[in-house]
Each structure stands twice: as structure tokens, then as C-alpha cells.
Amino acid sequence: MDYLLIAFIIAVVLSPLAWLKSSPGQARVTAFRKRAGELGLKVQLVPAPDADEADKRPSAVRYCLLYNTAEKERHRIQGATWILLRDQRRGWDSPWQSWRWFRHSAEEALFSRIEALISAIPASVYGIRSDSFGICLYLRETGDIHQVDDLAAALKAFLALQE
Q: Would you state the torsion angle of the CA atoms of residues 21, 26, 29, 33, taken in this order, to the nearest 10 degrees?
């Protein structure tokens, strides 16, 4: 009987430790974000790309490649703030199937670069935004961690085409 009581007490003491272990989903998200940091991307929790401008509650994740000083200046001169959303009814048609402009559209001079970006990103990306901060991809953090490598390569290629 004493052994049973000791086993019960040990189980009661150790059971909260099981709650501290991260779930497979949490471990995947952590790995995604860690890999993004290693590749020079900034991960942010932000409002959804189609959220009302007054809504500041974070409900989406975006992976951004920040502009350097020269790119920020070029962006300021071009005024190139734009948003593209995948599989949305809001906004207006864009030249790319299943993508729609939302709030702002890009200049036509950027279309070939945007097309190259769209063809390089995984299906988990549902939004693209360019503003004075950088070029950002909104995505669902699902699937394989190698997607992060693809995101970083696509964003870096987008900026390289600018030069």
C-alpha cells in the first residue's frame, strides 16, 4: 500500500510537467520562425492584411525582408505601397489568377517582378505587401520547414530584380 501511495504522489507531482511540453504544432511554428531569423527575415504578428485599418489586433503572421537604406529611398520616391491577396472576394482583379489587389495596387513597372515572386512562393502564402518597411508575405505556418527557405529566396530575388 505504501508503494501505491508513493507512486500516486510522484504522478501528481510530475503530471504538470507534461503540460509544459510543446505540441507538434507549436514546435513547427517555433522552428519556422527560428529558421526565418537565420535567413534574415523578420517575423511579425500583425493584423490580417485585409483587416480594417483601425483594427490593431494581431491575427496574422508575416515574414518580411526589410529594405536597406537605398531601397527605402527608392520606395519613398515610387510610393509603392501595395497589397495582393490570394483567394479573396475583397478588392479588385489583378493580372494574376486567384490574386486580387486590396486597398493599393503596384505600378505596372513592378508587374514582372511580382509575377516572378508569385510563381516562387508556396501555396501557404495568402498575402503579399510592400510598404516602406519592406516586402512581406502573409502565410499559414503549415507544412515543411523548407518553405521558409523558399520564402527567403523568393523575397531576396524580388529585391534583386529591383536593381
A: -40
Structural domain containing residue 104: 23-162
- Facing residues of 136 across strands? 64, 129
Cα distances from 162 to residues 110, 114, 123, in angstroms, run: 9, 11, 24
- Backbone φ, ψ for residue 54 (5° rounding): -80, -15
Please state the separation of Cα 116 from the chain's center in Å. 18
pLDDT per position as a tens digit, 9-40:
777 776 676 677 778 888 899 999 999 999 99
Q: Tell me the pLDDT tens digit for each residue of 45-75.
A: 999 988 887 888 988 999 999 887 666 666 5
Q: Distance between CA atoms of 71 and 161, rounded to whole angstroms?
A: 12
List alpha helices for the chain, DSSP H.
2-20, 24-38, 69-78, 111-120, 146-162
Q: Is residue 3 part of a domain?
A: no
Q: Determine contact, residues 33/22, Cβ cutoff 8 Å.
A: no
Position 158 in a domain:
yes
Q: Which amino acid is at 105?
A: S
pTM for the model stands at: 0.82
CB 130, CB 82: distance < 8 Å: yes
Is 18 contained in some domain? no
Number of domains, the chain: 1
